[in-house]
Amino acid sequence: MDKPFSLALGRRHVAFSFRHCDRTLDRHRSLLRSCALERVGVGAGAYVWSYISHDEHERETGILTGEAVADSLITTQALKYAFGRERPIADQGRLDFFKGGNSFPSNHAAAAWSAATVIAHEYPGFITQTLAYGLATAVSASVVLGKDHSPSDALVGSAIGWLIGRQIYRAHHDPDLGGATVGDLPGKEVRRGERDRQDMGSPFVPLDSWVYSTFERLAALRYVSSAILGLKPWTR
Predict the structure, then answer these.
(1) CB within 8 A of 139, min separation 6: which ones?
(2) How far apart are alpha carbons 113 and 135 in whole angstroms?
(3) In the chain, where are the structural domains located?
(4) Which of 25, 86, 105, 179 could disulfide-pair with 156, CB 3.0 to 4.6 Å?
(5) Are the beta carbons of 142 and 189 closer than 8 angstroms?
(6) Could you give the percent of the chain with pLDDT greater than 70?
(7) Helical packing angle, 107-122 and 126-145, nearest 10°
């Protein structure tokens, strides 16, 4: 094989590789836009449909989803400005902070996870949660595969979105409409009407408890200004 032909073949291979890479990135970006639009569409659709179906639960879902997405976008935009991280395609993928970039964190991942968290809490069924969190995961993966963000950008953005969505639901959800009950800490989420027996204490202090003698002693020594000794057992 002569040298000119080899060079021409090499150039064609490189050009094909770049075109293939560009098509792959375009597919990931298209998936990202589709999932992002789906998130906005679900919230807006639930809000509009609630006026037709007169369903207050759907109306709340639409409102809280929109609020969570807006809050997550505001938060991530502020962090982008503060950290100024470069995108993976800039400066040979150095991903330096404070360089005037806008990569960290991913606002697409934050918006997707904030919407998914609200929807998954409003309708805490297995299928709904799987679809909501599955699509949010697809968005996070797409921003990385599409070279728009690094994995850490997507991870932090997803965490921000989850926290904002959970807090929006916890602060504004009407328990009478159904949905999941959110506790103060992760892992303490229970369905409405259920109680964890490990968190349930005794409804009263037993008569043979050491507490009574201790308080009587403290009252006698005047460390306690007042004591109601006649009411036993003491209830919580």
Answers:
(1) 32, 35, 36, 39, 108, 109, 112, 113
(2) 9
(3) 31-183, 201-236
(4) 105
(5) no
(6) 62
(7) 180
